[in-house]
Design brief:
Layout: E1 18-23, E2 30-35, E3 42-48, E4 58-60, E5 72-74, E6 79-84, H1 87-95, E7 104-105, H2 106-124, H3 137-142, H4 147-153, E8 154-159, E9 164-169, H5 171-186, H6 188-193, H7 198-205, H8 214-230, H9 235-243
Antiparallel strand pairs: 1-2, 2-3, 3-6, 4-5, 7-9, 8-9
Helix pairs in contact: 1-4, 5-8, 7-8
């Protein structure tokens, strides 16, 4: 279920979605994610909260409530949206700073990631204290549907003692995934299909959109695409990636 008072504005509905608290791939801050009932699609919970002087309530009616059944009221005026996210970003955020010198069974890799992020969470908490467990990390990385995303950014080897495979984060694979994301976002057709989001960012990146050359427009597209990708990867990964761009 969502946090108290939340109403998901998602179409189609997620059904029996599983809510997880995982580190945001860029900031490491605990964030809500939802897995659909097939465990194949991942969504990030985004909250847009107005400034207090301008806050208003939302009156939300579900499609099936038009016959007279009550909807819901969001008293704080915040808009909560479940936005699709490629699971590979979350997986990369979990594994980026885990020791990648050796191959590890998935269970060991997941436990190392959980321990690392629990320690960081404790260090970021005022007063410090002993690290608290981060219970959703190991189950998330162990899901069968996440195996394909692990393979996108990890080298693997067969290991009978590890129930089949051992994993090690591969920078070459990571860079390949990030390059493909940037290339797709920078395509003219992608920007044209989203004129009020990508298109607007590209126009803002140009000194003069009216007089910009084709080369200047394409450079702006690439820069915007890179910034968008970097917003969903750890800063350490972004710095290394930009060094090789």
């Amino acid at each position: 279920m969502l946090p108290p008072g939340s109403v998901p504005l998602v179409h189609p509905p997620l059904g029996d979605a599983q809510m997880l608290v995982l580190p945001h791939p860029h900031t490491g801050v605990p964030s809500y994610f939802a897995l659909d009932d097939t465990h194949t699609a991942l969504y990030e919970l985004l909250v847009v909260r107005p400034d207090a002087p301008h806050a208003r309530s939302w009156l939300v009616g579900h499609a099936e409530s038009r016959g007279g059944a009550p909807g819901a009221v969001i008293g704080d005026g915040a808009l909560r949206v479940l936005s699709p996210i490629d699971p590979v970003f979350v997986v990369l955020g979990l594994l980026a700073d885990v020791d990648a010198r050796h191959f590890r069974p998935l269970e060991d890799l997941a436990e190392a990631a959980a321990e690392l992020h629990a320690q960081r969470r404790a260090q970021a908490t005022p007063g410090g204290g002993a690290p608290r467990a981060w219970p959703d990390i190991v189950p998330f990385l162990s899901m069968p549907s996440i195996a394909a995303h692990l393979a996108r950014i990890c080298d693997t080897q067969a290991e009978a003692a590890a129930d089949g495979l051992v994993y090690r984060l591969s920078w070459a694979r990571v860079a390949e995934v990030l390059d493909a994301k940037r290339t797709r976002l920078a395509e003219p057709a992608t920007c044209d299909a989203a004129p009020e989001t990508l298109g607007r960012l590209v126009r803002k990146a140009l000194p003069s959109a009216a007089t910009a050359s084709d080369d200047e427009v394409q450079r702006a597209r690439v820069a915007v695409a890179r910034d968008l990708v970097c917003a969903y990867i750890p800063p350490s990964v972004a710095a290394r990636w930009e060094e090789n761009v």
